[in-house]
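Quick question, first post here. What does this chain look like in 3D?
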Amino acid sequence: LYASPVFMYTEKYTNPILSFTYIYDWEMWRYSFFLSRSARFEESQIVNDITKGGIKIFYFTPMGVLGSRLSLFHGLHLDRTEQIAFGGTFVRGYPYLFNRGDIAYLSTLEYRTPPVQVWVLALGGVLFFDAGQTLNKGDNLSPLASVGFGLRGNIARFDDTLFRLDVGFPLQKSPNGVLNQVSFGLQQVF
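> Answer (accepted):
Ran it through. Tokens below.
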């Protein structure tokens, strides 16, 4: 937890420097661009600095939605607990925090079926391909990749909160175990 310097707590605080998102809808397409930068300061010195950027593209049809994303991350002065971590939600099918580094890229291709009403639930399916890697300076490129399927659902009468259950299958060597391949969340991956 970080305190704001406005309240005279200056030992540690987080200061978002820049955040920009642009969404453009054109016929059956949606484009979303984002760029953000944040830094953590301690005693007036930058302790870490993370810049994120990317693009998301969605194509809507009566047969479902095809979505893709490409995200880039760059961090400076990051200790092990603050490094960019992949696995779990980011590259589904790998254990959470499987891969860490100061630089990262992530890409996803996902097909989402139209929802089907089952009693009070709206349920839909997902097929996906994830690829990405975290790097430190001097590392070679060797991305993680996975394929999988998932289930999406919500109770439309109460709110728009979405639950998701994904099962990913790593395409590279990974610690085995069903729990490493299952991810759950309360929002879309992207």
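The CA atoms of residues 14 and 135 lie 24 Å apart.
The two ends are 26 Å apart (CA to CA).
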